[in-house]
Every structure is written in C-alpha cells, then in structure tokens.
Amino acid sequence: MSMELYDLATADPKLRFSPYCWRAKMALAHKGLSWEEIPCAFTDKDRLPQPNAGTVPVLVDDGNMVSDSWKIAEYLDERYPDKPLFACPESKSTALLVKFWTERTLQPCITRMAVGDFMSTLHDKDKPYFRETREKRIGMPIEQCMSRREQARETFAAALEPLRAMLAEQPYVAGAQPAYADYIVFGALQWMRCGSPFPALRKDDPVFGYRERLLDLFDGFGRKAYCREELV
Amino acid sequence: MSMELYDLATADPKLRFSPYCWRAKMALAHKGLSWEEIPCAFTDKDRLPQPNAGTVPVLVDDGNMVSDSWKIAEYLDERYPDKPLFACPESKSTALLVKFWTERTLQPCITRMAVGDFMSTLHDKDKPYFRETREKRIGMPIEQCMSRREQARETFAAALEPLRAMLAEQPYVAGAQPAYADYIVFGALQWMRCGSPFPALRKDDPVFGYRERLLDLFDGFGRKAYCREELV
Questions:
Q1: Up-side HSE of residue B150: CA atoms within 13 Å toward CB?
Q2: A-chain residues near B91 (CB < 8 A)
C-alpha cells in the first residue's frame, strides 16, 4: 500500500499551502517515494487517524502513523536511509535552529503579509477558527494586519538577510545539494507563493533565485503546485 | 613553535572582546591546542603579518598564515582533524547560515546596545576610526544610538527567539555537545559580556544558561576572560 499523507485542505481542492505539509512533501520527493494525499480541513480533525495531535501533516506508512513534520523527517531517514535528509547527527541538530529560525522569524512575517489571503481560501466552516487563533497570535484584527502588509514585507526582507548572505557562498543551506534544512525554508516560501498573490520577494533577490532552484527540484514538483493566482 | 593568534586589542591589555577572535579562541581550545595571543589595535594593521586583509583574527601556525575566523576553523579541521569543529560537510554548510544569522541579526543588536561602551575601551588613536565606521553602519551618532539601547535590547530578545526555542530541545546548536556553530554564537555573547556592563540577557533566559554552559567549557576558559565590570 502506498503511503498516505494528510495535508491541509482549503476550499479549493487544488490549493494546498501548509508550510509544514510542504516540508513533508519535499522530504518524500527527496527520497523518491510515492504517496497519496488526503486533504483535511482545520475543523476536520476527527478525520485524522487516531490518536492525533490535531495537526497536519500526518504520515501513515505500513501501519506506522507519524505526526509532526520534524518527526516525519526523522522517520523517513530511519526507515528509508537512502538519500538522507540529514547527513549526520550534527547537521540535524543545526537544522533544528534553522527550523526555529523559519518558524519564529520568517513565518510570522509571512503571516503578517498574507493572513487575510490565507483566510479567504479556506472552507467557510474553518474561517471562525482561523480568525480567532490568528488574531490572537498577531494581536490585532486580520484586516488591520493586512493594511500594514508593506511594512511586514520590509521586515521580511530584513529577516532574510542571513539567508541572502549565505547564498552568496553556497546554493543551499545544506551545501552544494539541498536537504531537509532547505525544505524547511522552502515550506515557508511555498506557503506564501501558493497562498497569496502579494509579491513577497523581488525578482532580483537571491532568495527568489533560491526558491526557483527549489521549485525546479524533482522534475518541478513544487512548481506544479497550484497557486492562487498566476505569479511571477 | 607555538601558534600565534593576532587578537583585537583595547586600551586595557586584559580586555579582549572581538567576537571573531573569540570564535578562533574557542576553536583552538576545542582542539586542545595552545597558542600565544598578540594584541593588535584597529589602527595597528601594519603589525599584522603580510599580506593581510586588515582584520583580526589572524592565525600563524608552522609557517601558515590564515586570516578570517571561518577560514581558521576550516584550517584547524584540516590540519588537526581530531575533535572536529564540523562533524560533516552538511553540518558545516548549515553552520554557515548560523554564522550569517549571528552576524546579520544578532550582532547588529549588540552594536546598538553597546557600541558606546565598546568605543570607550579603545586606545584613543582607534576612536576616530571606530566612530566613523560604526556611525556609518548604524546610521546615527553613537550617543544617539546609546540613548535607545533599551529598545535594542527588546529587539535582541526577540531575535534570540529561534535559539531559545531550540534550547528547549537540545543543549547546543551542534546537538548534545558544542562545536563550531556554538562558538560563532558564543563569540557574539562573549563580545557583549566582556565589553559592556549593560545587562543584555535576563538571568532566567535560556540563552543566559546556554552562555553559562559555554563559559564553563575547557576549564572555564571563557569565564576567565576579563570583563569591563563585574557582571552577573
């Protein structure tokens, strides 16, 4: 039986932008594995296999159920050691800082640039849950946050400066070839790219070129993903 | 002959706070090597071995001269492969993002908290050079910057959030044991700790505990460093 990956659903069955699910999908593609995706709305938690933490992604493989994108990466490296996602324990530990940099520094900027766009794509039944949890997180009404998105873009551009400087020396966080640390960052960039028409990156930004390289991986797997609007 | 390390001098021969030199010193201590330090003021560049890039640290070892803290780490791992600073090529590449995160996100916060303190420790002959280059970098007079240091401390606390979250899961960036990625971050923390009495970290901050662990390494090598004032 093929693997199953529970992915975050929006109202449009084609549109899947969860950054954590993108990490898992890129990890599976990196391994050359195939999987079936099961879209699951925010308020459809009871459709997830039991017991669950109420979050996606969830991977079901050969009777094993793994929740949490990081644990999925660990599981895949243990169970399918070819084409490792982490080359050594130290690179995995260092990638954990990249994970938290992405989650605590980059992703909040993305929320502030696009939370209203993300909400508008959801099933109506998901919207009250989404508004409540996100407004608590950002400390203001979603509409007010969206009125300040240009400022958030400046903060985002500044937050990317370490990555930009690194890209002047090597093409990927993992070095000459991409690995899981890159899929973490890609998850965030792809979330923004698919879920919002707001132009977050300038085309002349080295981070734009980095995203392009990641979109080209695995026969353009990331590039084939449906985006809300045609984007540059 | 013992190795020589050219280190940044202040007016007080005991006080050495360059973050880049601290990276090199921790790397040497990690390897269990011994070295002689040659203090060199900002405006004493002609005392560095020729040819040089005009920056410290510079390591001279057995006829080899290596400038730049990152290149020194690479040199030490090549020449003295025991107790590696980087466990594998991927962890080294990922550490490069940690390096730029430290330099582009953390260190600017430290400059904004303490640039006036740093200037006051220098030889008088260094001060005009220091003021000119740093004021250009921060875009305002040093005195104005210092009047806003409480704000800079808030920005610093927020910038450390990825590290703080990581520390809830593992004691060091490199994992269970420290390695070069940690010495990069330590360089920044030690720069602040030695060069300024301004309390940058709350004692209950996990980053404070992390710094404590790094200060204890190698028989308290970092802790023995002279600080401008007795600090908590």
A1: 1
A2: 87-88, 90-91, 93-94
What is the distance, to the nearest Å, from the Cα of residue B133 to the centroid of all Cα atoms in its chain?
19
DSSP letter assigned to residue B109: H
- pLDDT tens for A78-125 read 999 999 999 999 999 999 999 999 999 999 999 999 999 999 999 999
| Distances, alpha carbon B227 to alpha carbons B25, B190, B195, in Å | 16, 9, 6
Task: For residue B82, count other CB atoms closer than 10 A to its CB.
Answer: 7
Residue positions counted in chain B: 232
Two tokens at B95?
Answer: 């550490």
Cβ of A91 and B90 within 8 Å? yes
* Whether the complex's predicted ipTM surpasses the cut of 0.90: yes
Place of tokens 């390591």: B59
The torsion of the CA quartet A212, A214, A217, A221, rounded to 10 degrees, works out to -80
Question: B101 vs A162: CB contact, 8 Å cut-off?
Answer: yes
> How far apart (Å, rounded) are the C-alpha atoms in residues A155 and A159?
6
Separation CA B98–CA B103 (nearest Å)? 9
CA distance A175 to B94: 7
Q: Is A69 on the interface with B (CB under 8 A)?
A: no
Burial of B78 (0-12, 13-18, 19+ CB in 10 A): exposed
Q: Which residues of B touch A172 (CB under 8 A)?
A: 93
Tell me which residue of B75, B99, B82 sits closest to B5, measured CA to CA: B75
**Tokens, residue A63:** 């009777």
Contact B100 A172 (CB under 8 A): no
